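Input:
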Amino acid sequence: MLAACGGKQAPVPATPGPPTPQSFPGQSTPNRPPDPPAPVPEPPPIILEAPVVASDPLAGLDTDEINRQSPLAPVFFGLDSDTVDADGQRVLAANAAVLKQYPSWAVTIEGHSDERGTAEYNLALGERRALAVKSYLLSLGIAADRIRTVSYGKEFPFDPGHDEAAWAKNRRGHFVVTGK
Amino acid sequence: MRRSNRLTVHHRVAITAVCGLALLVPALPMGAPDMYAIATTPLDQQREVAISVRGESGRAPRLGFAEFVITGADADLRTAAGTVSQVLYDDLEFEREFAMIARTASSKIPATSAEALPYATWNEVGADLVLVGNASRTDATLTVEVRIMNVERKASVFGKRYACTMRDPRYCAHTIADEVHKELFQLDGVARTKLAFASDRDGERLGGTIEERSIKEIYISDYDGGRQLRLTPHRSLNIAPSWSPDNRYLAYTSYTSGFPDIVLHSIYEARAATRPARGTPNAQNYLPAFSPDGTRIAFASSRTGNFEIYTMRIDGSDLRQLTSHPGIDNAPTWSPNSQQIAFTSERSGQSHLFIMSADGGPVTRLPTGGGKVDRPTWSPAPFNYVAYSAEVPGGNQIRMIELGTNKITNLSDAFQGNNESPSVAPNGRHIAFVTTQWGKEHIVIIGRDGKLERRVTTTGNNKYPSWSHR
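Output:
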């Protein structure tokens, strides 16, 4: 029962308890200990915006499954820029709320660039983008030890196209949940 | 090892010269597939070679390339001899010391020994010189005799017998080409050099991510793109190889651990790669460059929160931070004497090239003009230029700046698309780089005059070329 609602909670081990006297249906058990006091019912949880854990669609998923649902939106950048703009700040405020909701999550921020500029420069630019995203999250109160950064430069474009539409998608700080 | 191997070859030559015998020494594995000795025997060597080759006008001599005489009817020998002659032709064409007469123009001239060479016929196709080859086989030994005959004088200007191995006719041809260039033109050819590069050609999907990403592994090939071989089994992103001066190790950036490490990989021995600069969440390491003296590796790292240039001993000890500037410092390359490092920096606004001592300290900007430039690559001694990529409308182009005169030459302007990541041949005469001319990223070689000399890769995306040492 415990395992059914927890998802990741350890199953209760079937340890042999003290021997209990055999009981038969309809027969009272004279040695039975007194019942524990009935628990005081707790007030129902106040539901704000966040779903309770019991109905959390992300509970019980592994990190790949979580990442497929993209709970942390990417931050997009302008050409040759590592500035988190107003749109990016809104995205990061939402991401920070998610990270506070799931305090056990660790994330890696991947810095990516479009195909323009040299491969070498874009490694540095990707690094700067990832660090800029991290820095903004720190300012929103997310602990540094939950955030890793890595730069992929222009090695892993999300859109293989060669036009501005593709490039805009590829200039990003991309979130990957790497631990939960 | 490279030096001692060369000594071994020369030593054998000396012995055969003294004894006057054809020493058919079986190829000895020297720890590396390409590093065994090929025994060479001089054949009726001529004096006044340079005069015989150059002719009066000083123009490149026109070389006819006779079909090889094959002694024996065995199919393997025929195949091996065909490889030797084609690779040798291509190698000789590559350095452009000879004006090669197309083999189609001379294919009807019968294969003969040097003694029976139909000089009049070769004269008709315009040959100043004719290369005559003979291939035979004893067990695993492929014996190739090469003579180059002066058509006017009907005399030999080059003659040697090579005891090669049947399992490696390409290396046999590359050796002959290097010796022909050395003896006739005092030129250090690059026929036995190699290229390393990163490629996604195998299309294997990167693990540990839900995105569709192809791994990139490190490959090596002959300089001309022959025998392309995957070196790394990491199934991850591996980029930016750099050769050790003995050509036995590659340093490169690997994301195997999840963070960019500098990996030192033994090419010819099965031993665990070392990681002299290990990536961590706070120390990520990019773009290694072996010092020409083999003692240190320069690289870029973001461990202070910003890209700076570092060097370390090849075992990772004695780490030194050479730059400390809020602008990006990146892409280090060593001077030929290992005393200076050129690198890219944004310290003056846009990306420009700078030179500093290998111990750090004051920097000097290279006057490459106003635009953004990157990936400096210092030419080997005694050449004195830095090749680099320069941003232009629509991409990048390869240029070089001569350090003595600050003269800038555009090298890749004949190529469309993006052209980047130059690497210079050890004889300074050729530059390999990445072009998107054909859509995907491919490695090509051009001369210092910008002429396309070789397309090295044809499948997948291929980048970060690094030319080996001689």
